[in-house]
C-alpha cells in the first residue's frame, strides 16, 4: 500500500521555518508585502485568495487584495499592475487566474515587473525556468519539487508523466522535473494514447481537473502519484486520482485535500520572502 505524501504537514513545517526568517526581516524594518489582483467573482478564486491571506498572516506576511469587477478592462488592470510595480513597499504582484475573457492574461504577465513576479509566470521568468537559470518558480511546481525532496523521491533517470500542459502547472513542472534529470512527457487532450505513457511512468502527476481520470488499472505497480486536480463532485472535494484504489498500487500518493494544495500556498509565501530579501539585498 502506498505511503502518503502529506502536503499539509510539510507545508506547516516549511511555514514555521519561514516565519522565523520573516521575524528577522521585520526586526530590521522590512515588511514582506504582496498584492493579489482578483478579477471577477469566481467563487473558487475568492476562496483561494482568502486561504492565501490566512496563511500569509500566520507567517507575518502582508497580503493586499485588489478585488476588481467582472467587467474590468484590460487597460485598467494593466494600470493597476504598473502602479504596484512602482510602489517600493510592494515586493510581489500576482493575478489570480482564470481572468474574465475580455482580458488577455499574457498582456498582464508582460506587465508584471519580473523582480516582483511571485507567481513566476512572466515571460522572462518562464524563459529563465527553461534556461535552467531561474530565481522564482511557479508555486504549484515549486511545492511539488519540495515534496519530492522532503520525502527523498529521486527524479534522476525516472520516467515522469504530467497530465495537463497549463502555464501555471504542467509546463513549469516539466521544466523543473527535467532539470532534475527525469524524462518528462506532457500529456493533454490531443494525446493519442495516454495509457501507453501512464503504464510506463515511474512518476505520474495529474493536473487535468477531471475526477477519476487516474485509476489503478492505468498506472504501473509502485508508481509515485501526485494529484494536483481540484474537483467538486456531489459537494465533495476530490482530485483527479481515484485515491482509494490507486493508493493500493502506488508507492507514494498525495491526498486531496491535504496534498499539493497546501504546498502551493506555502510555496507562494516562500517566493514572496525570497523576492523581499532580494529587493533588500539579503
Ligand atoms: N492543488 C493546487 O495547488 C492546484 C490545483 N489546480 C487544479 O489542477 C487542475 C488543472 O488546472 P490548470 O493547471 O490550471 O489546468 P487547466 O484547467 O488550464 O488545463 C487543464 C489541462 O489538462 C489537460 N486535460 C484535461 N483533461 C484531460 C484528459 N482527460 N486527458 C489529458 N489531458 C487532459 C488539458 O489539455 P488541453 O491543453 O489539450 O486542453 C489542459 O492542458 C484543476 O483542477 C485546478 O483546479 C491548479 C493549480 C494549483
Ligand atoms: N495565478 C494563479 N496562481 C495559482 O497558483 C493559482 C491560480 N492562479 N488559480 C487557481 C489555482 C488553484 N490553486 C490552488 C491553491 C490552493 C489550493 C488548496 O489550498 N487546496 C486545499 C483545499 C482547499 C479547499 O478546501 O477547497 C487542499 O488541497 O488541501 C488549491 C488550489 C492555485 N492556483
UniProtKB/TrEMBL annotation:
Q: Give a short account of what the protein does.
A: Catalyzes the oxidation of 5,10-methylenetetrahydrofolate to 5,10-methenyltetrahydrofolate and then the hydrolysis of 5,10-methenyltetrahydrofolate to 10-formyltetrahydrofolate.
Domain Tetrahydrofolate dehydrogenase/cyclohydrolase NAD(P)-binding, by residue range, is 138-278
Protein name per the record: Bifunctional protein FolD
What is the top-level taxon of the source organism? Bacteria
Instruction: Identify the PANTHER family for this entry.
Output: C-1-TETRAHYDROFOLATE SYNTHASE, CYTOPLASMIC, C-1-TETRAHYDROFOLATE SYNTHASE, CYTOPLASMIC-RELATED
Q: Which GO terms describe its cellular component?
A: cytosol
Subunit and interaction comment = Homodimer.
- InterPro entries linked: Aminoacid_DH-like_N_sf (IPR046346), NAD(P)-bd_dom_sf (IPR036291), THF_DH/CycHdrlase (IPR000672), THF_DH/CycHdrlase_cat_dom (IPR020630), THF_DH/CycHdrlase_NAD-bd_dom (IPR020631)
Tetrahydrofolate dehydrogenase/cyclohydrolase catalytic domain boundaries: 5-119
Q: Which Pfam families match?
A: THF_DHG_CYH, THF_DHG_CYH_C
Q: Which reaction does it catalyse?
A: (6R)-5,10-methylene-5,6,7,8-tetrahydrofolate + NADP(+) = (6R)-5,10-methenyltetrahydrofolate + NADPH; (6R)-5,10-methenyltetrahydrofolate + H2O = (6R)-10-formyltetrahydrofolate + H(+)
User: Which biological pathway?
Assistant: One-carbon metabolism; tetrahydrofolate interconversion
Q: Which residues participate in NADP(+) binding? A: 164-166, 230
Enumerate the GO terms in the molecular function aspect. Answer: methenyltetrahydrofolate cyclohydrolase activity; methylenetetrahydrofolate dehydrogenase (NADP+) activity
Q: EC no.?
A: 1.5.1.5, 3.5.4.9
What are its GO biological-process terms?
Answer: L-histidine biosynthetic process; methionine biosynthetic process; purine nucleotide biosynthetic process; tetrahydrofolate interconversion
- What does the UniProt keyword field contain? Amino-acid biosynthesis, Histidine biosynthesis, Hydrolase, Methionine biosynthesis, Multifunctional enzyme, NADP, One-carbon metabolism, Oxidoreductase, Purine biosynthesis
- Report the gene name: folD
Sequence similarity = Belongs to the tetrahydrofolate dehydrogenase/cyclohydrolase family.
The answer to whether the entry has keyword Repressor is no
Q: Which organism is it from?
A: Lactobacillus xujianguonis
Amino acid at each position: 500500500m502506498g505511503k502518503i505524501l502529506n502536503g499539509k504537514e510539510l507545508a506547516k513545517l516549511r511555514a514555521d521555518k519561514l516565519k522565523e526568517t520573516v521575524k528577522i526581516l521585520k526586526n530590521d524594518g522590512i515588511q514582506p508585502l504582496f498584492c493579489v489582483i482578483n478579477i471577477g467573482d469566481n467563487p473558487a478564486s475568492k476562496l483561494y485568495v482568502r486561504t492565501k491571506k490566512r496563511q500569509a498572516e500566520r507567517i507575518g506576511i502582508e497580503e493586499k487584495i485588489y478585488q476588481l469587477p467582472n467587467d474590468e478592462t484590460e487597460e485598467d488592470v494593466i494600470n493597476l499592475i504598473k502602479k504596484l510595480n512602482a510602489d517600493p513597499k510592494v515586493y510581489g504582484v500576482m493575478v489570480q487566474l482564470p481572468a474574465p475573457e475580455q482580458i488577455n492574461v499574457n498582456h498582464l504577465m508582460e506587465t508584471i515587473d519580473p523582480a516582483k513576479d511571485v507567481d513566476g509566470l512572466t515571460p522572462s521568468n518562464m524563459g529563465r525556468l527553461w534556461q535552467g537559470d531561474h530565481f522564482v518558480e511557479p508555486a504549484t511546481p515549486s511545492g511539488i519539487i519540495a515534496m519530492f525532496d522532503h520525502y527523498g523521491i529521486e527524479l534522476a533517470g525516472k520516467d515522469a508523466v504530467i497530465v495537463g500542459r497549463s502555464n501555471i502547472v504542467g509546463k513549469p513542472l516539466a521544466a523543473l522535473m527535467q532539470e532534475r534529470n527525469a524524462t518528462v512527457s506532457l500529456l493533454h487532450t490531443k494525446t493519442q494514447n495516454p495509457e501507453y505513457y501512464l503504464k510506463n511512468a515511474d512518476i505520474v502527476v495529474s493536473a487535468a481537473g477531471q475526477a477519476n481520470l487516474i485509476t489503478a488499472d492505468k498506472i504501473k505497480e509502485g508508481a509515485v502519484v501526485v494529484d494536483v486536480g481540484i474537483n467538486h463532485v456531489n459537494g465533495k472535494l476530490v482530485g483527479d486520482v481515484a485515491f482509494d484504489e490507486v493508493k493500493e498500487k502506488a508507492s507514494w500518493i498525495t491526498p486531496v485535500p491535504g496534498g499539493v494544495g497546501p504546498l502551493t500556498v506555502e510555496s507562494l509565501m516562500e517566493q514572496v520572502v525570497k523576492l523581499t530579501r532580494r529587493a533588500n539585498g539579503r
